[in-house]
TrEMBL record:
Residue ranges annotated for the RNA polymerase sigma factor 70 region 4 type domain, each copy included: 112-163
Family: Belongs to the sigma-70 factor family. ECF subfamily.
Keyword Transcription regulation: yes
Source organism per UniProt: Stutzerimonas kirkiae
Pfam families with a match to the protein in the record: Sigma70_r2, Sigma70_r4_2
Record keywords, A-Z: Sigma factor, Transcription, Transcription regulation
Upper lineage: Bacteria, Pseudomonadati, Pseudomonadota, Gammaproteobacteria, Pseudomonadales
InterPro entries: RNA_pol_sigma-70-like, RNA_pol_sigma-70_dom, RNA_pol_sigma70_r2, RNA_pol_sigma70_r4_t2, RNA_pol_sigma_r2, RNA_pol_sigma_r3/r4-like, WH-like_DNA-bd_sf
Domain RNA polymerase sigma-70 region positions: 15-80
GO molecular function, one term: DNA binding
Biological process according to GO: DNA-templated transcription initiation
Protein name: RNA polymerase subunit sigma
Amino acid sequence: MSGVENLHSEYVGQLFRSHYGWLCKRLRRHLECSASAEDLASETFVQVLKAPAATPILEPRAFLTTISRRLLFQFWRRRDLERAYLETLIHEEEATTPTLEEQAQMLEALCEIDRLLDGLPARVKATFLLSQVDGLTYPQIASALGISQRSVSDYMAQAIKRCLRLSLERM
């Protein structure tokens, strides 16, 4: 570990000692479970630690609030996806209900798709999901969304380009 990385690590450690309790308390107001609040608070500091070493943070609580709020939104989005998925499973026949491992894999895939599509307009996301998850054809999607088939094609191209770009960036 270089000297700069060591200083950054020590600085984040000091931030942790000074603000972890405060951040946990703040997150508990938004979450039903104190363990989840502690997990999100810890993840907030992990994100700070992963960030490149920078000058000291002038407003550490504002900075930590911004990071934790983003993580909280991701947590809620994942929870909502999980609930929707589990509700769908309830309505399926028992014979076709996937195993717990398959459920976990599908949920992970849904979260990854949600992350890849994050930031795209709602119609682009809907078009992509109707095609890839529901298996609808372009004419069916156009009819369902009240748009032209050309728009469906453009939206699909936009979504696929974004998914490919973000997937390649991760490599």
